[in-house]
Amino acid sequence: MVSNENPTSPSVASFFSGIGGFDLGFERAGFHITMQCEIDPFCNDILTKHWPTVKRYKDIREVSYADVPSSDVWVGGFPCQDVSLARMGARKGLKGKRSSLFYEFARLIGEGLPSIIVLENVAGLRNSHGGRDFQTIIHTLAELGYSVGWRVFNSKYFGVPQSRQRVYIGGWYREGRGPAEILFESECSNGNDAPGGQDEEELIPTFKTSFGDLSKGPIVQGLAYCLYACSARHTGTDWSRTYVTYPDGRVRRLMPVECEGIQGFPTNWTLPTKIPDDVEKLDTIRYTALGNAVTVPAIEWLARRIQPVLHRMNMPKVMKEEMNLEVDLQTLRSGVLAS
């Protein structure tokens, strides 16, 4: 893969990078990656494979603002383990060892004040500790001077056969119009899941729809259930997981390469630079990394909507005022014509 390293293109600093879902999505939209921060050794190997020249740090707790290259956008999917409904037992929320790393990200944001920040997490973040954790995140960003918006997206509306709901939080530094322009569309009026006003009945296969060779197999359902970091394991109770079946009665789980596809990654994206002898262990690691990843086409969609807002934010003040005046005049004319 050839990274977009054009210094004139908009830039992204990636935190909690994982296997590079945010990075790949933004890169496809014309951004270039300035740095990555990821503590997991396997994920770091994958990042090095695809972005060999990008500056990289391991532990966000050891990163200072001086380490972060000048970047237009900062992105990060901070750890979800302590806020996820998929975890058994009580959720520790932002007090948990992993999810509390949000505060380290907030520390850097407060020092750097990038123009735009984008965070991603499980939808369960919204009700963690009765919604108090989510409120803390929104208030933290607002106190730093950001206009904040959020929206839940389902990956099935972005061209991948997976039902996966995730909440995306955007912050725009001293820019009030950004959240609405990027996260929401005027033509989308039926809920907050489908961008572009897509018709679910026409475009999205259901869990009951199956594809494949009915005489020989394999047969797969048209829409996969949400991939979790533990999707490779069959516990006896996880009947909501997606399986591949055969007419002779055989059943198997999805292979890592198939999971890559339903997350929007290229084939063999998660193959490490050196293949270990224990292939089964490698598969488990790949499943975990993919279950923790963002869906690439959803990120690309967001990145493309960020471009024009970022362009406006970087305009000189006089040009911004002229643009706002033009918008006000258009609004006035529309009102006069409507009356």
Walk me through the structure:
The structure is a single chain. It contains 10 helices and 11 strands. It folds into 2 domains: 11-200 and 295-323, Rossmann fold; 203-291, no CATH class. It is globular and about 65 Å long. The strands form 3 sheets. A 7-stranded mixed β-sheet has the order 3-2-1-4-5-7-6, sandwiched between helices. A two-stranded antiparallel ribbon has the order 8-9. The chain has a two-stranded antiparallel ribbon with strand order 10-11. Helix 1 (21-28) packs across helix 9. The protein is 33% helix and 16% strand. The longest helix has 22 residues, at 317-338. The N and C termini lie far apart (55 Å). Mean pLDDT is 81; it is low at 81-91, 188-192 and 197-202. With 339 residues, the protein is α/β, with parallel strands linked by helices.
Percent strand equals: 15-25%
In DSSP terms, counting alpha (H) and pi (I) runs of 4 or more, how many helices? 10
Rg value: 21 Å
Cα distance, first to last residue? Answer: 55 Å
Q: Count the beta strands.
A: 11
Low-confidence stretches: 81-91, 188-192, 197-202
Q: Helix share of residues? A: 25-40%
How many domains make up the coordinates?
A: 2
Mean pLDDT: 81
Strand line-up in the sheet with most strands: 3-2-1-4-5-7-6
**What string, H for helix and E for strand, traces the elements in order?**
EHEHEEHEHEEHHEEEEHHHH
Q: Give the CATH H-level superfamily of the largest domain.
A: Vaccinia Virus protein VP39
Oligomerization status of the protein chains: single chain
CATH class of the largest domain: Alpha Beta
Q: Any guess at the CATH architecture of the largest domain? A: 3-Layer(aba) Sandwich
